[in-house]
Amino acid sequence: MFRPFVFIIGLTIVFRIASAQTADLSDLLEAAKMDYANGHLDAAMAKLDQRDKAQRASGDSLDLRGSIALEQGKLALAAREFSEAHKLQPELFAPRLHLGDVDLREKKYAEAREIYTKLASDTNILTSSERTRYALLIVELASKDETAAKAAFGNIKFPTETPAYYFAEAAWAFAHHDESSAKKWIATARDIFAAPTLAWFERPLYDLGWLKEKPPPTTL
Hints:
Order of helices and strands: HHHHHHHHHHH
Number of helices: 11
Radius of gyration: 21 Å
Shape: globular
Oligomer: single chain
């Protein structure tokens, strides 16, 4: 005899178990992100392995895998992970930005410029736009293209929601041999913004030899 009440209870239990498992996997991803931000890369990868074994990899988990590989200097692996993240969830901003970061790290400035320029045209989110504009400035400064660098610098207006303006000023000062001013701009940014928000902006300055202390793993 069919008992609808028992059936409904059974469905409710299954739904609650599934919801709890989903929450646990989400917690694992967040815990992996925290490990990564604190420099515990092996622990972060272990949690990602656990998470992705229980459920198909997501754009966010693949992007984090790429970020870990990038931090370890495994640039080809990082590029593959970011590409897979973009294929899986094309709407995500971070994997596309990070693909440009890989090219920038490899000094493939034309390729990085192409990625950042396309990304800039595809986003209307202010904080994302500020990042792409800063990235483009870094590309032009690293390329030593003064005309293009001036144009990119002029596209970063005060104020910005992110540390972009302050680090743009710092990058410009470093590139023009004014280390004192550059350090003042960075100090101001560190007074205003939370430390975890700074690392992505600091990293290219370190890669270009302008900052001597390696930033922590970069997060968006």
